[in-house]
Amino acid sequence: MSETYAYGGGYGATSPDQTRTLFGQTMWYVAATTGMFALGAYLGRNLSGGWAIISYILAFGCLIAMNFSVRRSSGLTVGLLLAVGILLGLGLAPTIAYYAAADPQALWQAGGATALFIAGFGAAGYATRRDLAVVGRISFFALIALIVFGIVLIFVHIPHGDLIYSILGLVIFAGLTMFDFQRLRRSRGLDSAPLIAASIFLDALNVFLFFLRIFSSSER
Q1: Cβ-contact 38, 89 below 8 angstroms
Q2: d(CA 21, CA 26)
Q3: Is there a contact between 203 and 173 (Cβ–Cβ < 8 Å)?
Q4: Read out DSSP for 125-172?
Q5: Which residues pair with 187 in a beta bridge?
Q6: Cα dihedral: 10, 14, 17, 21 (round 10)
Q7: How far is the C-alpha of 63 from the C-alpha of 56, rounded, in Å?
Q8: 2 falls in which pLDDT band (50, 70, 90)?
Q9: What distance in Å separates the CA atoms of residue 63 and residue 66, rounded to the nearest whole number?
């Protein structure tokens, strides 16, 4: 799954109160989206692969729609964000259900590692004064290359290819996480909160999936 980069409400000088308010609202949206994801994962635990693909497509459509609705209706944008959470939960439900039955320890390990990863790199990105726009741009194009590499792995066997793919993914999303948290600090206007929350949620979800691949393979 890829990132969403679009309207961010603009950058500029913000007061400490504005920054704290934006941070709090964005994190609330991330938490709410994560809750909807968990609900979707529970409701869709018996879904077939076909329904999972449909859920992915609908989630992607909601992400695109958010970029247009953010200028028109904040309520609709938040609704679309929550829909992204539940749809991705439905899409990943069969995978999570499989690991919950076959290797539940990998799920807990991936969850804990994801929390530490996002907290660490998020704090670094939020605190740094260095402009991370270049890091975000490089990471975005590296993500596209990683997607191509993942497609190659489907058809070509590369020794330890799955592990290499996951580690590269974590490196890329370290950069994206730092960039998104710096966007959170620099953005002005609460209208940017849903889109930044979507990016941070996708950061965390992708990191979780990469860690899940690593921890599940280590148990084999």
Answers
A1: yes
A2: 8
A3: yes
A4: HHH--S--HHHHHHHHHHHHHHHHHHHHHHHS--TTHHHHHHHHHHHH
A5: 11
A6: 10
A7: 11
A8: very low
A9: 5
DSSP 72: T
The answer to whether the CB of 200 falls within 8 A of the CB of 184 is yes
Please give the pLDDT value at position 209. 96
Residue whose token pair is 């007061």 = 15
Q: Which residue has the tokens 């070509």?
A: 156
Residues in the chain: 220
Q: What is the pLDDT of residues 24-51, one digit of tens each?
A: 999 999 999 999 999 999 999 888 878 8
Q: Does the pLDDT at position 117 exceed 50?
A: yes
- Residue 123 tokens read as 């704090």
Amino acid (one-letter) located at 48: S
pLDDT at 97: 92
Count of helices and strands (H, E) across the chain: 7, 0
Token pair, residue 110, equals 């991936």
